[in-house]
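== Polypeptide entry ==
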Amino acid sequence: MLLGVAQRVLEQEGDASLYRPLLMGFHDLMSPDAERAFAQASEWHIPPDQVLPGAKSAIAIFLPFSERVVISNRDGRFASRLWAEAYVKTNTLIHRIGTVVSLTLVAFGRKARVVPPTGVFDRETLTAEWSHKLVAFLCGMGRYGLNRMLITSSGCAGRLISLVTTQELESSPSPTGELCAYLRDKSCSECVQACPVYAIRADGFKMVPCFEHCSENAENFLDLDSAEVCGKCAAQRCAFGPA
């Protein structure tokens, strides 16, 4: 039901040329793996019950970009204008989708709260107090790739949002095996080659140059609202699905 609600908002309010069908996953926040994950990230990540007291489940939503958007961003040092526009539009749209899903749960007598897709980010430590990727990972939506993106069944090119609710929901099954070709058998390193600032490496990820380059990208799109984005690593082989 909730997936249908979200998909209807996408169809009614989204630009069909920018997106593919969205994905949704669920996770029981009372489970040992959820408690362990949030405990390990407790230095920077707030617990679910701080977002919503009594939270029992998490919901993650992934809105994948269309082939047109992805292909536009494969070449060049800076993000394509279409990718930047899609990023900004999607932040608004996916928050709207999450809000409607939240209101649907409220209409059935449950509490729910959606966490905005952007804005809860510390520019000094380069950490966010809430990770949509971590929640989506727990919700069985994919596995991390060498590019530190979450590779889902529809790839990693798109935007994530998550919400928590007092509704008890059964956890979605998680994928088995690596979905990133490099982590599986080292047969791909396209994201390494695509990164304009060499932030992606097999032995680690350099967050500072990545963030600085995203900020530099924003200077190219001052007419857009906060287009701090690059996306070159997400527009490669695993953009549309597991590599």
